[in-house]
Amino acid sequence: MLPADSHVHSEWSWDTNIGDMEGTCARAVAIGVPAVAFTEHLDHVVWTADRGTLEESPHLASFADGRGRVTAPAFDAAGYLAAVERCRDRFPGLRILSGLEIGEPHLHVEAVADVLSAGRFDRVLGSLHGLPVGPEFYEPPMLFEHFGRERALRLYLRRIPAVVAGSDAFAVFAHIDYPLRFWPVGAAPFDPFAYEEEFRLALRAVADGGRVLELNSRVPLCPEILRWWREEGGTALSFGSDAHHPAGLAGGFREAAHAAEAHGFRPGRHPWDFWTS
Ligand SMILES: [Zn+2]
Ligand SMILES: [Zn+2]
Protein backbone atom coordinates (compact mmCIF):
# COMPACT_ATOMS: atom_id res chain seq x y z
CA MET A 1 0.00 0.00 0.00
CA LEU A 2 1.21 3.51 -0.76
CA PRO A 3 1.88 5.82 2.21
CA ALA A 4 -0.60 8.59 2.95
CA ASP A 5 0.11 11.74 0.99
CA SER A 6 0.50 14.30 3.76
CA HIS A 7 1.41 17.29 1.62
CA VAL A 8 -1.13 18.12 -1.07
CA HIS A 9 -2.50 21.43 -2.34
CA SER A 10 -5.92 22.13 -3.84
CA GLU A 11 -7.81 25.13 -5.19
CA TRP A 12 -7.63 26.50 -1.64
CA SER A 13 -3.91 27.15 -2.11
CA TRP A 14 -3.41 30.60 -3.57
CA ASP A 15 -0.47 29.62 -5.77
CA THR A 16 -2.28 27.09 -7.95
CA ASN A 17 -5.08 27.64 -10.45
CA ILE A 18 -5.31 23.96 -11.37
CA GLY A 19 -5.79 22.65 -7.84
CA ASP A 20 -8.88 20.49 -7.37
CA MET A 21 -9.77 18.97 -3.99
CA GLU A 22 -12.53 16.72 -5.30
CA GLY A 23 -10.45 15.63 -8.28
CA THR A 24 -7.54 14.82 -5.96
CA CYS A 25 -9.78 12.70 -3.73
CA ALA A 26 -11.11 10.84 -6.76
CA ARG A 27 -7.55 10.26 -7.91
CA ALA A 28 -6.55 8.96 -4.47
CA VAL A 29 -9.36 6.40 -4.57
CA ALA A 30 -8.42 5.42 -8.13
CA ILE A 31 -4.71 4.81 -7.48
CA GLY A 32 -4.96 3.41 -3.94
CA VAL A 33 -3.68 6.27 -1.79
CA PRO A 34 -5.28 5.53 1.59
CA ALA A 35 -5.23 9.03 3.07
CA VAL A 36 -4.64 12.59 1.88
CA ALA A 37 -3.85 15.75 3.85
CA PHE A 38 -4.77 19.01 2.14
CA THR A 39 -2.02 21.23 3.47
CA GLU A 40 -2.91 24.54 1.87
CA HIS A 41 -0.46 27.39 1.76
CA LEU A 42 -0.59 29.92 4.56
CA ASP A 43 1.89 32.66 3.68
CA HIS A 44 2.36 36.04 5.28
CA VAL A 45 5.76 36.90 3.92
CA VAL A 46 5.99 39.28 0.95
CA TRP A 47 8.67 37.89 -1.33
CA THR A 48 10.39 39.28 -4.36
CA ALA A 49 10.18 36.96 -7.34
CA ASP A 50 12.54 37.01 -10.29
CA ARG A 51 11.32 37.96 -13.73
CA GLY A 52 11.67 34.40 -15.11
CA THR A 53 9.48 32.91 -12.39
CA LEU A 54 6.78 35.52 -12.98
CA GLU A 55 6.92 35.11 -16.75
CA GLU A 56 6.55 31.35 -16.38
CA SER A 57 3.52 31.71 -14.15
CA PRO A 58 0.98 34.40 -15.03
CA HIS A 59 -1.08 33.14 -12.08
CA LEU A 60 1.72 33.93 -9.65
CA ALA A 61 2.35 37.23 -11.43
CA SER A 62 -1.24 38.24 -10.75
CA PHE A 63 -0.26 38.57 -7.06
CA ALA A 64 2.89 40.61 -7.77
CA ASP A 65 3.33 44.37 -7.80
CA GLY A 66 5.41 46.23 -10.38
CA ARG A 67 8.63 45.34 -8.54
CA GLY A 68 7.88 41.64 -8.48
CA ARG A 69 6.86 41.59 -4.83
CA VAL A 70 4.35 38.79 -4.35
CA THR A 71 1.71 39.06 -1.61
CA ALA A 72 -0.42 36.01 -0.89
CA PRO A 73 -4.14 36.66 -0.44
CA ALA A 74 -5.71 35.92 2.96
CA PHE A 75 -6.54 32.27 3.57
CA ASP A 76 -10.27 31.48 3.75
CA ALA A 77 -10.17 28.96 6.61
CA ALA A 78 -13.95 28.59 6.93
CA GLY A 79 -14.44 28.02 3.20
CA TYR A 80 -11.59 25.53 3.12
CA LEU A 81 -12.78 23.53 6.15
CA ALA A 82 -16.30 23.35 4.65
CA ALA A 83 -14.81 21.99 1.41
CA VAL A 84 -12.93 19.32 3.38
CA GLU A 85 -16.21 18.28 5.04
CA ARG A 86 -17.94 18.01 1.66
CA CYS A 87 -15.15 15.76 0.38
CA ARG A 88 -15.34 13.60 3.51
CA ASP A 89 -19.05 13.06 2.79
CA ARG A 90 -18.42 12.36 -0.85
CA PHE A 91 -15.44 9.97 -0.37
CA PRO A 92 -16.24 8.02 2.81
CA GLY A 93 -13.61 5.35 2.09
CA LEU A 94 -10.77 7.86 1.92
CA ARG A 95 -9.24 9.34 5.06
CA ILE A 96 -9.07 13.09 4.43
CA LEU A 97 -7.00 15.19 6.80
CA SER A 98 -7.28 18.95 7.03
CA GLY A 99 -4.04 20.86 7.19
CA LEU A 100 -1.83 23.78 6.34
CA GLU A 101 1.63 24.41 5.00
CA ILE A 102 2.77 27.46 6.93
CA GLY A 103 5.54 29.40 5.24
CA GLU A 104 8.05 30.97 7.65
CA PRO A 105 5.86 30.27 10.70
CA HIS A 106 8.46 31.75 13.07
CA LEU A 107 8.07 35.21 11.52
CA HIS A 108 4.28 35.44 11.86
CA VAL A 109 3.41 33.74 15.11
CA GLU A 110 0.27 35.74 15.93
CA ALA A 111 -1.17 35.73 12.42
CA VAL A 112 -0.61 31.97 12.26
CA ALA A 113 -2.29 31.42 15.64
CA ASP A 114 -5.31 33.40 14.41
CA VAL A 115 -5.81 31.11 11.42
CA LEU A 116 -5.23 27.94 13.46
CA SER A 117 -7.90 29.03 15.92
CA ALA A 118 -10.51 29.02 13.12
CA GLY A 119 -11.00 25.27 13.27
CA ARG A 120 -9.35 21.90 13.32
CA PHE A 121 -6.21 21.35 11.25
CA ASP A 122 -5.06 17.75 11.48
CA ARG A 123 -1.67 18.03 9.79
CA VAL A 124 0.32 21.22 9.97
CA LEU A 125 3.57 21.59 8.07
CA GLY A 126 6.17 24.27 8.64
CA SER A 127 8.20 25.45 5.67
CA LEU A 128 11.13 27.68 4.95
CA HIS A 129 10.94 28.88 1.35
CA GLY A 130 13.46 31.71 1.45
CA LEU A 131 15.48 34.18 3.48
CA PRO A 132 15.36 37.88 4.21
CA VAL A 133 17.88 39.93 2.26
CA GLY A 134 17.83 43.48 3.63
CA PRO A 135 14.22 44.67 3.38
CA GLU A 136 13.40 42.03 0.74
CA PHE A 137 12.67 38.34 1.00
CA TYR A 138 14.19 36.07 -1.63
CA GLU A 139 13.41 32.48 -2.52
CA PRO A 140 15.51 30.38 -4.85
CA PRO A 141 16.43 30.96 -7.65
CA MET A 142 16.78 34.62 -6.54
CA LEU A 143 18.62 33.42 -3.43
CA PHE A 144 21.15 31.62 -5.62
CA GLU A 145 21.66 34.73 -7.75
CA HIS A 146 22.21 36.86 -4.69
CA PHE A 147 24.44 34.64 -2.55
CA GLY A 148 25.69 32.03 -4.99
CA ARG A 149 24.00 28.66 -4.72
CA GLU A 150 26.46 27.05 -2.30
CA ARG A 151 26.32 29.86 0.22
CA ALA A 152 22.55 30.17 -0.25
CA LEU A 153 22.05 26.50 0.60
CA ARG A 154 24.25 26.79 3.71
CA LEU A 155 22.38 29.90 4.88
CA TYR A 156 19.05 28.20 4.22
CA LEU A 157 19.95 25.13 6.30
CA ARG A 158 21.45 27.23 9.10
CA ARG A 159 18.17 29.13 9.41
CA ILE A 160 16.11 26.01 10.10
CA PRO A 161 16.84 25.85 13.86
CA ALA A 162 15.32 29.35 14.19
CA VAL A 163 12.14 28.20 12.41
CA VAL A 164 11.73 25.30 14.84
CA ALA A 165 12.60 27.36 17.91
CA GLY A 166 10.35 30.22 16.82
CA SER A 167 7.12 28.32 16.23
CA ASP A 168 5.32 25.42 17.84
CA ALA A 169 2.46 25.69 15.37
CA PHE A 170 3.68 22.89 13.11
CA ALA A 171 4.37 19.19 13.65
CA VAL A 172 6.18 18.38 10.40
CA PHE A 173 9.10 20.22 8.87
CA ALA A 174 8.51 20.20 5.10
CA HIS A 175 10.99 19.80 2.24
CA ILE A 176 14.30 20.34 4.03
CA ASP A 177 15.92 20.08 0.58
CA TYR A 178 13.74 22.80 -0.95
CA PRO A 179 16.61 24.78 -2.59
CA LEU A 180 17.71 21.64 -4.43
CA ARG A 181 14.60 21.89 -6.64
CA PHE A 182 16.25 24.90 -8.19
CA TRP A 183 19.79 23.51 -8.49
CA PRO A 184 20.77 24.64 -11.97
CA VAL A 185 20.86 21.99 -14.65
CA GLY A 186 24.40 21.86 -15.98
CA ALA A 187 25.94 23.09 -12.72
CA ALA A 188 28.18 20.77 -10.73
CA PRO A 189 25.89 18.12 -9.27
CA PHE A 190 24.78 18.54 -5.69
CA ASP A 191 27.17 16.77 -3.29
CA PRO A 192 25.41 16.16 0.05
CA PHE A 193 28.69 15.59 1.88
CA ALA A 194 29.80 19.15 1.14
CA TYR A 195 26.84 20.31 3.29
CA GLU A 196 26.82 17.53 5.87
CA GLU A 197 27.51 19.84 8.81
CA GLU A 198 24.64 22.16 7.87
CA PHE A 199 22.21 19.32 7.17
CA ARG A 200 23.04 17.68 10.48
CA LEU A 201 22.56 20.99 12.32
CA ALA A 202 19.13 21.42 10.73
CA LEU A 203 18.08 17.80 11.24
CA ARG A 204 19.16 17.87 14.90
CA ALA A 205 17.06 20.99 15.46
CA VAL A 206 14.02 19.34 13.89
CA ALA A 207 14.53 16.17 15.98
CA ASP A 208 15.27 18.02 19.23
CA GLY A 209 12.20 20.18 18.63
CA GLY A 210 10.07 17.04 18.57
CA ARG A 211 9.05 17.50 14.94
CA VAL A 212 8.68 15.01 12.13
CA LEU A 213 10.79 15.18 8.99
CA GLU A 214 8.98 15.22 5.67
CA LEU A 215 10.19 13.08 2.83
CA ASN A 216 9.06 15.33 0.00
CA SER A 217 9.02 13.39 -3.24
CA ARG A 218 9.06 16.38 -5.62
CA VAL A 219 12.77 15.63 -5.99
CA PRO A 220 14.10 12.32 -4.61
CA LEU A 221 15.51 12.89 -1.12
CA CYS A 222 19.21 12.14 -0.86
CA PRO A 223 19.61 8.84 1.03
CA GLU A 224 22.33 10.44 3.16
CA ILE A 225 19.79 12.90 4.55
CA LEU A 226 17.60 10.02 5.73
CA ARG A 227 20.61 8.37 7.34
CA TRP A 228 21.66 11.64 9.05
CA TRP A 229 18.06 12.14 10.21
CA ARG A 230 18.21 8.87 12.17
CA GLU A 231 21.72 9.57 13.45
CA GLU A 232 20.67 13.00 14.71
CA GLY A 233 17.78 11.51 16.69
CA GLY A 234 14.94 11.62 14.16
CA THR A 235 12.41 8.85 14.64
CA ALA A 236 9.47 9.72 12.38
CA LEU A 237 8.84 10.46 8.72
CA SER A 238 5.95 12.00 6.82
CA PHE A 239 5.49 11.54 3.07
CA GLY A 240 4.47 14.41 0.81
CA SER A 241 4.19 14.78 -2.95
CA ASP A 242 3.58 18.54 -2.78
CA ALA A 243 1.10 18.04 -5.63
CA HIS A 244 -0.66 21.20 -6.76
CA HIS A 245 -3.09 19.32 -9.06
CA PRO A 246 -4.68 15.83 -8.97
CA ALA A 247 -2.22 14.16 -11.36
CA GLY A 248 0.70 14.91 -9.04
CA LEU A 249 -0.78 13.01 -6.08
CA ALA A 250 1.67 10.53 -4.52
CA GLY A 251 4.18 11.12 -7.30
CA GLY A 252 7.42 9.24 -6.61
CA PHE A 253 5.93 7.50 -3.57
CA ARG A 254 6.99 3.95 -4.41
CA GLU A 255 10.64 5.01 -4.56
CA ALA A 256 10.22 7.18 -1.46
CA ALA A 257 8.69 4.29 0.52
CA HIS A 258 11.52 1.99 -0.54
CA ALA A 259 14.11 4.56 0.54
CA ALA A 260 12.40 4.98 3.92
CA GLU A 261 12.25 1.21 4.43
CA ALA A 262 15.92 0.87 3.52
CA HIS A 263 16.69 3.28 6.36
CA GLY A 264 14.65 1.39 8.91
CA PHE A 265 11.34 3.29 8.84
CA ARG A 266 8.08 1.34 8.93
CA PRO A 267 4.39 2.23 8.51
CA GLY A 268 2.33 2.87 11.63
CA ARG A 269 -0.93 1.24 12.69
CA HIS A 270 -3.11 3.46 10.50
CA PRO A 271 -2.17 4.47 6.97
CA TRP A 272 -2.22 8.15 7.99
CA ASP A 273 0.21 7.59 10.88
CA PHE A 274 3.78 8.76 10.47
CA TRP A 275 6.34 6.11 9.63
CA THR A 276 8.67 5.43 12.52
CA SER A 277 12.00 3.76 13.07
ZN1 LIG B 1 6.58 24.47 0.27
ZN1 LIG C 1 3.68 22.60 -0.63
Describe the sheet with the most strands: 8 strands, mixed
Rough shape?
globular
Question: Number of DSSP helices?
Answer: 10
CATH structural class: Alpha Beta
Strands of the widest sheet, in order across it, are 1-2-5-6-9-10-11-12
Uncertain stretches of 5 or more adjacent residues: none
Q: What is the β-strand count?
A: 12
Bound molecules: zinc ion
How would you classify the quaternary structure? single chain
As a percent range, the share of strand residues is 15-25%
Order of helices and strands: EHEEHHEHEHEEEHHEHEHEHE
Radius of gyration: 18 Å
Give the N-to-C terminal Cα separation.
18 Å
Count of distinct structural domains: 1
Question: What secondary-structure arrangement, pairings included, does this model have?
Answer:
Blueprint: E1 5-8, H1 21-31, E2 35-42, E3 47-48, H2 51-56, H3 58-61, E4 69-70, H4 77-90, E5 95-103, H5 109-116, E6 123-127, E7 131-133, E8 136-138, H6 142-147, H7 149-166, E9 172-173, H8 196-208, E10 212-216, H9 223-231, E11 236-240, H10 253-262, E12 275-276
Parallel strand pairs: 1-2, 2-5, 5-6, 6-9, 9-10, 10-11
Antiparallel strand pairs: 3-4, 7-8, 11-12
Helix pairs in contact: 7-8
This protein binds zinc ion (2 copies).
One zinc ion binds at residues 101, 127, 129, 174-175.
InterPro entries: PHP_dom (IPR004013), Pol/histidinol_Pase-like (IPR016195)
Domain PHP: 5-217
Protein name: PHP domain-containing protein
